[in-house]
């Protein structure tokens, strides 16, 4: 995403688009799940079943980008200018979706529903996903609450990074792991999904993005310019992901460590992709960058669009990989077309009102 406050890194938008696609394929996979065996033909079902990891990818990318904006903590940020820009980026489409939910739940809606926006409580009110999903397929809205909670913290994290060094961020990651361990011991394995939908589960994912962004600025990862290191790190990362996905989620160790491990793995993939030498196809790069800019619309709107398409066409719930992928591709195409429209109509006009918040 182009910004007044940092140099544009188009590869990050490419990866945002990929994260959105991963989540769409996950949500519309139907009854395609992993069969419990590590065979070549079971890898796709394993990834489809665990495609929700795309959320972790989004959050790592956010932390990585913000660290570039703050120049690794060296840039003084105007706090309210930073928050103002985040409101302009996030709130217009979010409020549009919130009013759709209120329309669908009019008989039971109360002023508290509006207060959810102000108090950043869109990740509460539903046992499985975000607020409002009982009335309209708006489940992904929960991440907005978690993201904005991080936005409120970030200028302080940037300041403390500059003042105390990288060890401060590392200590925060350790604190979040210990906190999840404590909660899981006290509340049992079922608490995983509460942690999943809250800042308790996600703060260290943002922070790991910041840590990797910090060392990226220092040039520590320049060795990844060589293809042999890229191949080694990418293949190892995919293998670890596959091994991680095998674990049952409702246990103490998984609840404590999985979010951190996912963040590190996605961070490695991010770094490899930034350094990898791709063919110079300017048109393709422009298209991927623009689709990445539209990924917020894709993320929020893919469920209502996909479910509507299912109803209109009368698709059966996918039972095999081919049907699942075929239907998801069609849903992706329609979601992209709608997202291009909503991005230009709702998001972009407000983005043009953003200001510079890094101090001279």
Automatic annotation (TrEMBL):
Any single biological process term in GO: polysaccharide biosynthetic process
Acyltransferase domain location: 10-341
Keywords, in A-Z order: Acyltransferase, Hydrolase, Membrane, Transferase, Transmembrane, Transmembrane helix
GO molecular function, one term: acyltransferase activity, transferring groups other than amino-acyl groups
Cellular-component GO terms for this entry: membrane
InterPro entries: Acyl_transf_3_dom (IPR002656), Acyltransferase_3 (IPR050879)
Transmembrane segments: 12-28, 48-67, 87-108, 141-161, 168-185, 191-215, 227-245, 251-276, 288-309, 321-346
Nucleotide-binding keyword on record: no
Pfam family, one: Acyl_transf_3
Protein name (database record): Peptidoglycan/LPS O-acetylase OafA/YrhL, contains acyltransferase and SGNH-hydrolase domains
Species per Swiss-Prot/TrEMBL record: Gilliamella bombicola
């Amino acid at each position: 995403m182009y910004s007044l406050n940092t140099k544009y890194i188009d590869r990050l938008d490419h990866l945002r688009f990929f994260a959105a696609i991963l989540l769409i394929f996950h949500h519309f996979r139907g009854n395609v799940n992993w069969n419990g065996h590590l065979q070549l033909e079971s890898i796709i079902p394993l990834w489809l079943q665990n495609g929700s990891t795309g959320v972790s990818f989004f959050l790592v990318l956010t932390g990585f980008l913000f660290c570039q904006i703050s120049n690794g903590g060296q840039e003084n940020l105007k706090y309210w200018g930073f928050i103002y820009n985040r409101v302009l980026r996030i709130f217009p489409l979010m409020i549009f979706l919130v009013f759709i939910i209120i329309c669908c739940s009019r008989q039971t809606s109360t002023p508290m529903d509006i207060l959810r926006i102000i108090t950043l409580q869109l990740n509460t009110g539903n046992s499985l996903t975000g607020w409002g999903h009982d009335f309209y397929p708006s489940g992904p809205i929960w991440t907005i609450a978690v993201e904005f909670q991080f936005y409120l913290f970030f200028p302080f994290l940037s300041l403390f990074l500059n003042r105390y060094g990288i060890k401060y961020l590392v200590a925060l990651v350790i604190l979040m792991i210990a906190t999840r361990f404590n909660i899981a011991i006290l509340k049992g394995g079922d608490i995983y999904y509460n942690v999943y939908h809250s800042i308790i589960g996600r703060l260290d994912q943002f922070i790991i993005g910041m840590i990797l962004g910090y060392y990226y600025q220092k040039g520590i990862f320049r060795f990844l310019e060589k293809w042999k290191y890229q191949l080694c790190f990418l293949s190892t990362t995919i293998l670890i992901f596959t091994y991680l996905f095998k674990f049952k989620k409702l246990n103490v160790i998984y609840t404590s460590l999985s979010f951190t491990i996912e963040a590190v793995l996605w961070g490695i993939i991010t770094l490899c992709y930034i350094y990898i030498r791709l063919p110079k196809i300017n048109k393709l790069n422009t298209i991927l960058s623009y689709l990445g800019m539209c990924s917020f619309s894709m993320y929020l709107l893919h469920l209502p669009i996909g479910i509507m398409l299912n109803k209109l066409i009368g698709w059966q719930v996918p039972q095999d990989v081919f049907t699942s992928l075929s239907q998801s591709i069609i849903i992706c195409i329609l979601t992209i077309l709608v997202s291009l429209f909503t991005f230009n109509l709702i998001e972009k006009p407000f983005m043009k009102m953003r200001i510079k918040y890094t101090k001279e």
